[in-house]
Task: structure prediction
Amino acid sequence: MKNLWSLSANGFVGGKESIMRRGNVYQIANGYMGYRGTLDEFGPDELVGITLAGIFDRVGSAWREPVNAPNAAFTRVSLEGVELSALGSRVTRHEQTLNFANAVFGRKTVFAAKAKTLTLESSRWLSAATPNLGVVTFSVRCAQAARVTIRTGIDCNIWDLNGPHLRQMTAEKHGPVLLVQGVTHENSKRVVVAEAIDLPFGTETHETTDNRNLRVIQLRAEAGRTYTFHKYFAVFTDNDTVNKPLTEAAIETVQQARALGREGCRERHDAEWARKWERCDVEIAGDDEAQHALRYSILQLLMVAPVRGSANSIPARALSGQVYKGAVFWDTEIFMLPFFLHTDPEKAVELVRYRIKTLDGARRKAKTEGPGYRGAFYAWESQEAGDDACTYFNVGDPFTGRDLRTHFRDKQVHITGDVAIAMWEYFKLTGDDSLLLEGGAEVILECARFYYSYAYFKKDKGRYEILDVIGPDEYHERVNNNAFTSMVAKETFAIANATVAYLRRNHPKALRTLLAKIDIQGELPRFREAENLLYVPAPDARTGVIEQFDGYFQLKDATVEELKAKMVHPNEYLGAAQGLAVATKIIKQADVVAMLNLLRSRFSAKIKKANWDYYEPRTEHGSSLSACAYAMVAIEFGHLDFAYNYFLQTAKIDLEAKYKVYVGTVFMGGSHPAANGGAWMTAVLGFGGVQADENRVALNPRLCRKWKSLRFHLAYKGDDFRIRITRTSLTIVPSRANARIHTFLVAGRPVKCRPGRSVTVNYRPAK
Ligand code: BGC
Result:
């Protein structure tokens, strides 16, 4: 039977692409840093990456990207003078595992050299209790007495896409601690790495060669005896708030960890992980494949959730490397935030705060990007200060090697509305207005201000229109009246108006201060007008289909297969000025369907079905964000088998490594946290039928065929609930600590949920 709490693989196939994919799938992270799923002996050629959250650098005119730290988990072993690597020819067995329960990576490899056999085992984790800390346990055992050399320490040969980012590198030894530090190019931020070990055997000398700061351990290994040591490493940067020099903080962290010991460190780490799973696990009975893939997806989200108090967000490729410039996209607000909001609002706070922190960046972008833009134009690819890392030429043409003009940065304006919607969702589902008061309301009003400056008032039609944009479907640039974009803009006006009304009622003084601070009082009537008069393409009266943008229906019809058959290069880009999809109705990803999902309570099942049927055959699913939107909408009109297939695609995207590695000439390999969020969303909000707003939680389950039951945890307005859904009944267990009685709507019937009192009701799945 499949182990539903781990992932493992046997053997190791070399080759760049397979190493890259393995590295993604087996990565570990703790919000502060990610460590790719590479092996102890690997180096930059095997894409070892310790990607740090929230610290970026630019070298020359290359793309800005997050900084990778020197690798303090490096260890390489020689047996009788022969250097061993899982990629070499001396491997007789190799297995590796990722434990979902506590995000521990482990490997075991058996090597043979000079007629001797050595078994190497190691495990690695990034502490969930102490974010700067990582721990490795490493052991060797020889079947015959043998001469073994272990080189372990800090490898400063760093894998970078657009680096090297660290200059003035120094390697030192402070007593028993190895130390490496460097400084970034652009902002001169220091990155400090320290390493200490517990070594109960062998003799140790120190070596700094080949850009490595190493201990060399000589060992005369006895036959059959296991030699184990523990390694503690710490990474600190100028982004950390510590009241002592960074080097001291790093040294102290590893010394303390060593004093506490591997067991002690692990206990704290495991306890944190137990707490995470307690709140966030989803159990599916009857479908191991789905259970495993969903749990893996949840693990990914839990690993990369920002450290408390950091106000960091989650990049589109999480902490799996520097792809997509380590930037935060709408992926976070629309695809990942729902998971955190419904399970662990304390993490959701960080994601939302990130947009408050980067408001000035969004203001800068509005000022510099367009004629007369005002307010907050959020970055399409947002880094630490909110400035846009997206370039005007963001895709390379594989035929000519030339950069293609793309308009993601200047025209994908729906990002601003996605931010406003997320801010408001946080308020609605948590009931916590403190973020609104601490910058959230300001964000919302500045978002509305931006759309007002972007919109055109068509006098002849008596309405506002949002023109010249890119919707989620990136293959059709510079279109008018994109339904998704116009809808989120309209929603932004509605949210701005609701925010003002709420503050006026509950915090009039704070409202006055805010309106004066950003001098926006005079614009409020315009927002009310725009909420009413902003045009959003409506469903066709006869077919129910919403035109994705003006003129979309006039484009050439084609199938995805026909289009793909015309491709001359496997990586050619289908959009920009003259990509193959541009003149056709083929879309990259859910667009109208993404809107039907985002605002799902606004549209009938009939409209959802009409649009799903129309757009599904015309969708390439060229983005990992697409399948889950189709899954969610299919559930709503009862197309459960289709939904299930899309759910599995989403949940297994990294496990099966079915994604584009190159778009044009741009390397895209990395993990897909938005799809992970989409998988959770489909399981819980989709099949589980959870729909929460400011007034109540509604549950309309529609379990797919295979699922006998579904259990999950729900956080709502500061209270906690456990939900168990079978095919005929639904049980709600409100936590004993809940502050109040809630009324849930189960299949349309009100159900009182009293603290500590579980209730079970029978239901009939909605048709
Ligand atoms: C998609 C975007 C997405 C980005 C990052 C692109 O391929 O079209 O919608 O935000 O990837 O995941």
